[in-house]
Specification:
alpha/beta; 6-stranded mixed beta sheet; 5-stranded mixed beta sheet; 11 helices
Amino acid sequence: MKQKKVFRVILVTAFCVGFLASVLFSGMAHAQAVRLKVATYFPAPASQSTLLEEFCRELEKRTGGQVKADFFAGGSLVSPVAMFDGVSRGIADIGYSHVYYTTGRMPVTEAIGLPLGYPSAWVSGQVMNDFYRQFRPKEFDAVRVLWMNTSPPSAIATAKKPIRKLEDLKGLTIRAPGVAGDVIKALGGTPAPTPMPEVYDAISKGVIDGEASNFETLRTFRFAEVVKYTISVWQITNPFPFYLVMNKDSYAKLPADIKPIFDGLVGEYKEQYIAMWNAVDFVGREYGVEKGVEFSELSPEEAARWRAAVEPVIENYVKTMVGKGFPEAEVRGWIKFIRDRIDFWTKKQIALRIPSVAGPPELKPRR
């Protein structure tokens, strides 16, 4: 009897010790949960923000709460201009912005924004990721690149004067930073590097005459409320190259068993983000139609004139990069790579029947 009693006492004691240990371990694990600050300058209702926030919530779910993500939209944590430095310094753990907010800081990647005529955001997004994987520009060494994408095919929206031909841009001030500004200047307009969150007021007050971006911004930034005309110029598309980057120390602190989950999720949402950027152009155009914006396209003859007009932008980029110490053959190699991948991904998009608002007839939705 005594032996049984002693055995029961031992069992109860062991259970209690085990239970207390598990509770303590659980509490420690909870206390050690990794917390990430994720920032974007896009307004909270924008598809760019809602999908990125979905990424945050899915990260929490798949890691069982071991990673928590606090999401900051609308530039509430870091401004678009300060995003890259904000992430590299740890103000934000993950941040989304585009290279033209720090013009000259990422000169190799700016090649993606040359007026090479991407027919869709799906094509240009795939090309940009290919470009980064192929060349690994050192300008991103301070951070960990999660994914890249671009804006949709180029369009120019104006408040008072419609653009039909090249000469119509003369005398107009158009919001266009970075390489986009070089393109507008080559076309005869005057570029203004106004930050996107300030463009609505600048157009409504007549500070600028319009903006060069795409149909998507008609809704995302409500430009359809302050412009009357927009013209698709996809034949010279010079997209805005976007990046989602992570602080290197923040990534290093992720537990070893969490990193594969995180990396897998990044791969999934990279594709979703590219597809989203392709789709938002449809939404923007529909919103523009609803608000009475007049849409037009370049004729084949006029498109040829525009291509010729922006050719010096490409050559000037080559000259500038050579001046920075890059061999000319290397720079032209980047451009050739981009053109080849545009052709590859355009054929792939046609084969997959992924529709786009702009581009050649093969990419337009079938009616």
